[in-house]
Design goal:
Layout (H helix, E strand, L loop, with lengths): L1 H29 L4 H8 L1 H28 L4 H9 L1 H26 L6 H30 L8
């Protein structure tokens, strides 16, 4: 059972990287050899402010999700998630989302510096934002399913 959880966590981690890699590829194909890539890079300060706001706001939402999850009285869905071991995987996804958001916040601050790696930081930052956005949507969906009560279940 423990090996299955470890394997599941590795699978979740690898799958969480796919949205960022996909959009990095799209960026490379569409914008890498055009003037739009340079205009995106020239607006790096605005992008850094937007992404740092996004990261800090959604980190707050993520903490709210975690507090709601743990304050919910154990209903049918939550008991089932715990019994099957999915609740620990969900907690892992919440932690992974928090790490992505924290990294994107740190990189957005680093983007404001005049580093020689600003172009690379911008690309990594955009990939991290897409990864965190995908995980946030999944986290909200799971939380919604956990909070819904089975028909006829009492409070």
């Amino acid at each position: 059972m423990e090996n299955n959880k470890c394997l599941s966590k590795k699978i979740i981690f690898v799958l969480s990287l796919l949205p960022g890699l996909f959009f990095w590829g799209v960026y490379q194909i569409i914008f890498a050899n055009t003037k739009y890539a340079f205009s995106l890079f020239s607006a790096k300060e605005s992008i850094a402010h937007i992404i740092s706001s996004y990261s800090s706001t959604f980190l707050g939402f993520l903490l709210t999700i975690a507090s709601i999850l743990f304050s919910l009285s154990p209903n049918y869905n939550r008991k089932r998630y715990e019994k099957l071991g999915y609740l620990s995987l969900y907690k892992f996804m919440l932690i992974l989302t928090a790490i992505y958001l924290a990294l994107s916040f740190i990189l957005s601050i680093l983007l404001l510096s005049n580093s020689a790696f600003s172009c690379l930081i911008l690309k990594i930052l955009l990939a991290l934002v897409m990864n965190s956005l995908a995980l946030i949507l999944i986290d909200f969906f799971i939380l919604f399913n956990l909070s819904v009560r089975k028909g006829g279940e009492e409070n």
